[in-house]
Fold this sequence. Notes:
- The complex is a heterodimer.
- Helices cover about 85% and strands about 0% of the residues of chain A.
- Chain A has eleven helices and no strands.
- The longest helix of chain A is centred in the middle third of the chain and has 43 residues, at about 135-175.
- Chain A starts with a helix and ends with a helix.
- Chain B is an alpha+beta fold.
- Among the domains of chain B are: about 50-225, Sandwich (Immunoglobulin-like), CATH 2.60.40; about 415-520, no CATH class; about 535-605.
- Helix content of chain B is about 30%, strand content about 30%.
- In chain B, strands 1, 2, 6, 9, 15, 17, 18 and 19 form an eight-stranded mixed beta sheet that branches. In chain B, strands 21-22-23-25-24 form a five-stranded mixed beta sheet, covered by helices on one side.
- The radius of gyration of chain B is 27 Å and the shape is globular.
- Chain B starts with a helix and ends in a 5-residue tail after the last helix.
- The relative contact order of chain B is 0.09.
- Chains A and B meet through helix 3, helix 4, helix 5, helix 6 and helix 7 of A and strand 27, helix 7, strand 34 and helix 12 of B.
Amino acid sequence: MVENDERQMVNAEWQTVDRERRMGLGAYLRRVIERPRGWALSYLLTTGMALGPALLMTLAWAPLTRHPLFSQILATRSVDALSDFVMSGAGNGGGIWGTLALLLAFPIWVLARLIWTWLEGGTLAEYAAGQPLSWRAFAQAGWRWFGAFLTLNLLGAVLVGGVGGAALLLAVFVYMRSPALGWVIAGVGLALAGLIATWTEVARAVALTQNQRGVFQVLGAAARAMVRQALPLAALVGGGLALYGLLYLAHRWLVDLLPLHWWLPTLLIQQAYTIVRLGIRLARQAGQVGLVTALAAWYDTKAIMI
Amino acid sequence: MSNPKSKIQNLKSKIQNLKSKICCLWLALLCCVGLLRAPAPSLGQATVPPPDVASYTIVATYDPQTHMLTGQQTAMYHNHTTVPIPTLVFHLYLNAFRSAETLWLRESDLRLRGYSFDPNAPGWIRIDQIALADGTALTVKPLDDDETLVEVALPQPVAPGASVSVDIAFTAQFPKAFARTGWADGGDFIFGGQWFPKFGVWEEDERHGGAWNAYPFHANSEFYADFGRYDVALTLPQGWVVAATGTAAPTAKANADGTVTHTFSAEHVIDFAWTASPKYREMTRKVEGVDVRVVYYPRQRAMARRALQATAGALPLYHAWFGAYGKSLYPHLTVVIVPPDAGGAGGMEYPTLFTVGALGGMMPACVRMIEVEAVHELGHQWFQSVVATNEAEEPWLDESFTDYATIRAMNALYDGAIVECLGWNFSYLAMHRLQYIMYPDTPMAGAAWDFDSLQYGIATYSKPALALTTVERTVGEAAMQRFLSTYFDRYAFAHPRAEDVRAVMEETLGAEVTTWFFEQLVRGNATLDIRVVTLDEQATLEREGDLCIPTTVRVTRSGRQAPETLAWPCDTPTLTIDGAPRLVEIDPAGAIVLDRDLANNQLRRAPDPAAGAGLAVRWLRFWQDFLWGGAVW
Ligand SMILES: [Zn+2]
C-alpha cells in the first residue's frame, strides 16, 4: 500500500515531461541506451518466455536428428529434403513434447503480450521523463497505462488484421486478372496496415505525454500529430524498418554461412540480432515520444502567443 | 564434356561454309551413317530422304473481329514406303472444340492444365472444297463423330516413290485461347496452333502393310507428323506483329485493302504455328549462331527478359549434350510470351517456336516457373521437333528426354531450384518426385488416352524424367553423353519408337541398365524402397519392391576411421552390418531418385547432439519471433 502523498510524488516523477527544454529527436533516441531498463526487460521477457516452448520442441524433435535428412532440412532449408521427410514414414510428428509446446503456444503468447503492454507503459514513461525513473515509478507507470495501452493494442491488431487481411484477399483476387494491379493493391494494403500500426503506436506516446487515458481523444490527437510531424515520423518509421531489413539480411547471411553444428556462434548471432531488433523498435517508440513532446511544446508556444 | 563441345564446334564451322543444298547432302549422309551403324533398320530410323514427305503451301487471311481464318492450301504427300497409299487422312484438330460434347472435351472435363474451355467461344474447322491438282473434286468422309479426323478417297492410289498434291479451301474458327490454340485479349492476340488440315503419317510395317497412323483428337494427346516444307502467307490487319515457325520473308506486302501479308518458309519441320498481335514488342539475341527472338506484350517485358535469359542459358547446354539446334538447319528460334488471359496457349512446343506463360502471369524472381517452362519447351526442339516421336501412341518418348534435360539444365543454371525464396529452395526434380510417388508403379509406356490426367503426368513426365536421371547418375555423365548424342544423331528427322531407344541404350549403356529401364519401368510396374530398418548393435537394411538397381552402402564406424563402402546387389533383399556402426547411408551419392522414400536411406545409431543444439538455437529464435508478435513490426 502506497501512501497518498508518496503516490503523488511518484506520479510527479514520471509526469515531468520536459516540454520547456527543447530537446532534439536524437536525445530521445539516445535514451534507449542511456535508460536501458526497458530494453533489458523486454529482451529478458521475450527470451525467458521463449525458452520453455523452445526446449519442449527441441526435446520433441531431437530424436529426429538420427535421420541425416532431417539435419539437412535445418542446415540448407531444402524443401526437397523437407518434402521427402514429410512424405516418408521416417519422422512422425513431435510426440508428447511437441504437442505440449503447441498447446502452450497460445497461452504463452497472450501472457507475453500482456506483460509487454505493461512494460511499454514504464518504458515509454521513462523515455518521456526528465530523469530516469525509480523502479517503483516504472512499475506504477506500467499499471497506470495498462488499460489504455491494451485497448490501443487490441484496436490496432483488429484494424491492422482487418485492413491487411481484406487488402490481401482483394490482391489475390485481382492478381488472377491483372497481376500488376494485384501487386499494387497488396502494396497499398501493406502501407495502410503500417500506417494504422504507426497510428496506434503514436497514440500511446500521445497518451503518455498528454497524460490522457481516453482512447478516442488520444487517437484523434495522434492523427493530428501524425499530420503535423509527417516527415520526421516517416523518417523514423521508414528508417527503423530499413534498419530491420538490413539487420535481418545481415544476420541471415551470417547464419547461413555457419554449418548446423556450429550452434554456439549461431546462438550468439541470433541473440545479438534479437537484442538489436528490440532496440530498434524501442528507439522508434522513444522517437515518437520525442516528436509528440516537441509538438506539445509547439502548441504551448502558440497558446502563449495568442 | 569437352569432347562433344569441340565436336559441335567443328560441326558448326563446317556447316557455316555450306549452302543449303549441301546441307541436304550432309543430312542424307548422316542418315546413311545412321543406317550403317544400326544393324537392323526399323520403321523409325532416319531413312527419310530429302524429298519432303508432307509439305504445305498455305495462303490464309485472319479476321480478328470474328477470330476466323479462311485458307487456301496445297498439301503434298510423298509416298516414301513400298506400299501404295489408297486414301488420304487429315487431322482437323480444331473440331475438338466445336462443342462441349466432343470426345476431347468429355475426356478432359472441359479443362486442360488449369484452364477452362469457354463453350461460348468454340473452335472448329471445315474443309470447304478439296480437289486434286488437275481439278478432280474429292469427297471428305469423317472418321469420328467430331470430325477431328477425316478420310479422302483417291481415284488412284499413290504409288511408292510418287507424290500426291491436293488443293484445299478451308475455314477455321479459333476458340478463345484453350489447349494450345486460340484468341485472347478481346481479339488482339491470336495463337495459331493445329489450325490447318494436316496429314496423318503413312506408315508401313511387316505385319500390317501400309496404314495411316492417325487418331481422333484425344484430350491427353499431342501430335505426330511427317517432316516437310511449309510456305505460308498470312494476311492480317495493318500494324500487327507476326511471329511463326521458320524464316520470315524480309518484307511484308501491304495490300490495297489495308491489310498486310506476311510470308514464312520452313524446311524439315513437322508443323507450323504462328502468333500475331498489334501489341507485340520484341527482343532478340544471337546465341551460339541461333537468332533468338522473343515476342511479348509491353507489360511482360520482365517476363520476356527472364525467358530469354533461360533460353540463352540452356541452348549451349543442349548443344553440348545432344547436338546442334535443328542439326544446324534451323536458323531461328522464336519464344512467344502469351498474355495473361491466354495461358491456355502457353507452355507448348512447335518447330523453331515455343510458347511460355502457361503458369499465369509474372512471378517473383525467386519463383522460376517462367525459366523452367522456357528450358523445358526449348528441350522439345531436340526431342519432338527434330527427333519426332509419336506423341499420341508413345507420349513418354519426347517428354522423358525433354524433362530429363530440363532437370539437368536447371541444375546447371540455377542449382536445380525452381523456387529459391528467403533461403528456402525447392528443385524441379523434387517437384517431379512429389507427383511420382503418388503412383510410382504406373508404367511409362501407353498411348495418351490410356491414362487419366494425373497418371499421364506421372507416366510421361515425372517418372521418365526421374528414371533417366537415375540412369545418368548410375552410369555417369560420360556414358550418358554417348547415349544421348547417339540417339539424337541417329534419329534426327526421323520417327523412332521405344524399341529404337532401347537399342541405342543397350548399345551405349549395356544390357543391365537397359533391362531395368525398359522391362521394369517402361513396360513394368516395379518400384523400389531401399531403407535402413534398424540400427543398434547391428544395422538391418531392406529392399522392398522388384525394381532391380544395384547400389552401395557407406558405413561410418567412428569419427576417426574413413567410412567404408559396400556393394549391395539387387538380388540381396536384406543386408546386415555388424559392429554397431555410427552412421549407415544407402546410395550415398543419391543416384536412385526413383526410390519411393529417400528419407529412410540413412540413419545414425544415436541422435546427433550438435544437430540437436543447432535445433534448440533455432527454436529459441522462432519462439522469440513468435512472442514478439511478428518479426517485422
Ligand atoms: Zn513437354
